[in-house]
Design brief:
By secondary structure, this protein is of the alpha+beta class. Helix content is 40%, strand content 20%. It is built from 12 helices and 19 strands. The strands form 4 sheets. Strands 2-1-7-8-9-4-3 form a 7-stranded antiparallel β-sheet. A 6-stranded antiparallel barrel has the order 10-11-12-15-14-13. The protein has a 4-stranded parallel β-sheet with strand order 16-19-18-17, sandwiched between helices. 41% of the residues are buried.
């Protein structure tokens, strides 16, 4: 999306996160001029124009309270979270993912450098590694010749070419025009400055194309009997029942591509399948048996099977033998699909490695004083080995075996990432609670000392066990809280009775 001032001048870009929340650079907001700033920071109003969504109206935006981090002299910070004047529930948000010092990834981005008031793409830029003060940025190199990342791209999402995940936000106020250098603020840094952004950080998007399952063997045993079992296996990780609500089995024997498509429509209401494919394609599962016995097997694949798969449905195709007509085309599609899933898995493993590293660092900072389960699991090494094995499988391994292994490894990586994120949040919460109790205990001890109650034996008998409980390894914060509150009540009683 493009951010404009009141005169319609393009200031830079932004990313929609939630229905009414936009992420951009603080200097983009500042570029609106002094009239857009209050003594305490930005007031209102920027104009937001959606790009590539014809018919979507413009909206106004102001900075969300507590989400304004202006750029420091050395460039650190420079983040703003905006609140739109209205919500846009039908517009998808940017799929943010959190990584550490990413490098060597190929990315693209979309900005609004003059005179391109409607925007322009930069494709095949590369991430070179950490840069900037405190290594808060990632260097972004544009490939000459062609358009490069420059002023006007600030606030734009940097999109991983392989997975469509958003790795960060362009900050181009500090571009070297001669060399074509630019920088991005990675999601990890954005969240550190504006913790509220964490609620929109997740896993990389799944490839839009649905699973293709190639079955070689007898039609009845391989398809009819095990069809829904295979669908459930492919959709592992989805909510129960997904991928089978609209299911059809079609025999392609002697049929043309159009006839197979008609049979699919007859097996599933045409109106319903069209609607569901547009909204919840994972709910659609189709098996096409006897593909090699169709009038033109490859036409059935390209004309009836591929459109369903491209829209996100799960499609199972059955052939009688490994050299049957159409098998090689289906296998090629299966391998291409596996390659896209491998790209996503590689990014997922990087995310797990990063979450493991930052959770270990947090556990070391917190220690066992605030959390009884500060030991961090280490799934990243195993996932990295499994990824390497899958990446080296090559053509000599059945793509169906690779696909099934990918399904299991993706699930394990997603689960590992979520568990590490949860543990990191638990460590933060326990540390914050520990520090809160310790601060309250010390504050009331200082009050007691100032009131001349340092030698009060009853207060001392309450203070010592409370401090001991907080210093225990691990600390039982529930028990410690009761002791701290008991000490505070005793101090208050002494002060009020004095």
């Amino acid at each position: 999306m493009c951010l404009l001032d009141s005169s319609g001048r393009a200031l830079g870009a932004g990313m929609l996160l939630g229905e009414s929340t936009v992420l951009t650079c603080a200097h983009v907001v500042q570029a609106a001029g002094e009239e857009a700033l209050s003594p305490d920071g930005p007031a209102a109003q920027l104009v937001v124009r959606f790009v590539g969504l014809p018919g979507t109206p413009e909206a106004y935006a102001g900075v969300r309270p507590g989400c304004w981090v202006p750029p420091l002299a050395d460039g650190r910070g420079d983040i703003a979270l905006l609140e739109l004047s209205e919500a846009f529930p039908g517009v998808p948000g940017a799929p943010l993912v959190r990584l550490g010092a990413v490098r060597d990834r190929v990315v693209h981005t979309y900005g609004f450098p003059p005179p391109h008031q409607h925007g322009v793409w930069v494709n095949d830029a590369e991430l070179a590694g950490p840069a900037g003060a405190g290594s808060e940025w990632i260097q972004l190199n544009s490939k000459p010749p062609g358009e490069r990342v420059r002023r006007g791209f600030s606030g734009a999402g940097v999109i991983d070419k392989a997975t469509d995940a958003v790795l960060g936000m362009v900050v181009t106020e500090y571009t070297d025009e001669r060399l074509g250098l630019a920088y991005l603020i990675p999601v990890e840094t954005i969240v550190r400055h504006v913790p509220e952004v964490a609620r929109w950080v997740g896993e990389p998007p799944r490839p839009a194309c649905g699973p293709l399952v190639v079955v070689i063997g007898d039609r009845d045993s391989a398809v009819v009997r095990d069809f829904l079992t295979q669908v459930r296996r492919e959709r592992r990780g989805s909510p129960p029942g997904r991928g089978e609500r609209l299911a059809a089995i079609v025999d392609a024997t002697g049929k043309t591509a159009d006839e197979v498509a008609e049979k699919v429509s007859a097996g599933i209401s045409t109106e319903e399948v069209t609607t569901v494919l547009a909204t919840n394609p994972e709910d659609v599962a189709v098996a096409v048996a006897g593909v090699d016995a169709a009038r033109a097997p490859e036409e059935v694949l390209t004309g009836a099977v591929k459109p369903l798969m491209d829209k996100g449905a799960t499609v199972l195709v059955q052939f009688s033998g490994p050299d049957s007509p159409g098998v090689h085309l289906a296998r090629r599609w299966e391998s291409e699909r596996n390659a896209r899933r491998l790209d996503r898995l590689a990014l997922l493993v990087e995310m797990v490695e990063h979450e493991e590293e930052r959770t270990r660092e947090r556990a070391a900072q917190v220690g066992t004083r605030a959390h009884p389960a500060a030991e961090v699991p280490g799934p990243a090494a195993d996932l990295r080995l499994r990824l390497a094995a899958l990446s080296s499988a090559g053509e000599h391994i059945d793509p169906g075996r690779v696909r099934r292994a990918l399904t299991v490894t993706e699930r394990d990586a997603e689960t590992a990432r979520r568990e590490l994120v949860r543990l990191h949040a638990d460590l933060d919460a326990h540390a914050a609670r520990h520090d809160e109790l310790l601060g309250r205990l010390r504050a009331y001890n200082a009050k007691a000392t100032d009131a001349g109650l340092m030698e009060d034996e009853e207060l001392a008998e309450r203070y010592r066990p409370a401090m001991t409980a907080l210093n225990a390894h691990p600390a039982d914060l529930v028990a410690a809280a009761e002791l701290v509150e008991g000490y505070i009540r005793a101090v208050r009683h002494r002060l009020e009775g004095a």
